[in-house]
Amino acid sequence: MKTLYFVLTALLFSACSVVNPTQTLPSMKYFSINLQNIQINTSIYKDASIIVALPKSLDYSNNIFYKKDEIIYTYAYHFWKENPNLMIKNFLEFNLQNLKIFKAVLNQDSLAKVDFILESKVNILEQEFLDRTHSKAKFAINLTLVNAKDKNIVASQYFYYEKKLNNTKPDLLIKAYNDIFKQFGEEFSTWMIKNLE
Description:
The protein has helices at about 1-15, 85-100, 170-195; strands at about 30, 45-50, 65-70, 70-80, 100-105, 115-130, 135-145, 155-165. By secondary structure, it is an alpha/beta fold. Strands 1, 2, 3, 4, 5, 6, 7 and 8 form an 8-stranded mixed sheet that branches. This is Putative lipid asymmetry ABC transporter MlaABCDEF component MlaB.
């Protein structure tokens, strides 16, 4: 019995040494969406304030999602730098401040009186694989501009974007998202101006 115990213990320790101690796991990478100044000329100015509400419908994690064969997965070593809900909220606030059509773009927990609320629901923020190397970066969001005084909807719009990728490198996925968000920023700014004229 002692011999069997000794052999099992020796086998256990020798199995542990099979893994090369210099072998390391891939390093984790964190990505974010670039905030780019969009130049849109407008003469509109509202003596009003606006709050951007935290987007709904996204997982409250930093995971980057992809879909393959109708199943949702997450990348093991690649993450968003911050929660995508906060990232999109910051993106919307940045674009509203850049437009300079409001007296103030307030934080969600501000105690100041607010005139408008921008609500959003993110429907899609994922990469969809078509085969082993081809995929699409996808983003869809529904925005609703609400008059805070009478609680009436001023405008509502669904935005959808996708960009095809011919490579599986995460850096190219993030570049595609930056292109998508640049286009979304331009269309969002135009939509806001149109609905406040």
